[in-house]
Design a protein that fits this description.
189 residues; 3 strands; 10% strand
């Protein structure tokens, strides 16, 4: 019984925001349509069906403008201030933000799909995305950064490699970690 109640509450959590939003939009539409039609009917003796749709669209655009310019700016400033006080949180946020910006931002990084030959003996190939064309600033002139996403989750691969195949890099570890966590999207500078 406890599980059924839990499932019910989970379903409510998923549906309630959509239902409330739909109801509010429906209510605003009816209110605007009735109010404007009553005013127009009283003074101009004109009935314009669907006028509520126009008013609803204009209302939502106005709320969007107010939210974008007046309401969200203080929250952005506060959030930035909190991030400045918590370096670890800022590090994680920036890496995740860079990753998402790579998909939808102005400087998309995941727009160069490639097929990489991983093992020439078995002809093993892997699909990925070039995220950085020029690695000269870390001493790798003829190499590129290729991100190999895993299916269904954000994870990576751990390889056990012979020591003679390791090359140390002269770079700040935090900067390199940010570069790796962001799938090669963050700057290495």
């Amino acid at each position: 019984m406890k599980k059924i109640i839990n499932y019910f509450l989970q379903g409510l959590l998923y549906i309630a925001p959509l239902g409330v939003t739909a109801y509010i939009i429906y209510w605003i539409f009816n209110f605007a349509d009735n109010l404007l039609n009553n005013i127009l009917q009283k003074f101009l003796k004109v009935d314009i069906p669907g006028l509520g749709v126009v008013v609803l669209i204009l209302f939502l655009i106005t709320v969007g403008i107010i939210g974008q310019s007046i309401i969200s700016k203080p929250f952005k400033i506060l959030f930035k201030h909190v991030l400045e006080k918590a370096p670890l949180l800022q590090f994680i946020y920036q890496a995740v933000n860079d990753l998402f910006s790579a998909f939808v931002g102005k400087e998309k990084k995941f727009n160069k799909p490639v097929l990489v030959l991983v093992n020439p003996i078995s002809n093993l190939e892997k699909l990925g995305f070039i995220t950085e064309d020029d690695l000269a600033h870390i001493g790798e002139k003829d190499k590129v950064a290729v991100y190999f996403p895993h299916s269904y989750n954000f994870s990576g691969e751990l390889f056990i490699v012979p020591k003679n195949q390791i090359k140390s890099l002269d770079i700040n570890p935090a900067v390199l970690m940010k570069f790796i966590v962001s799938a090669g999207v963050s700057d290495l500078k």
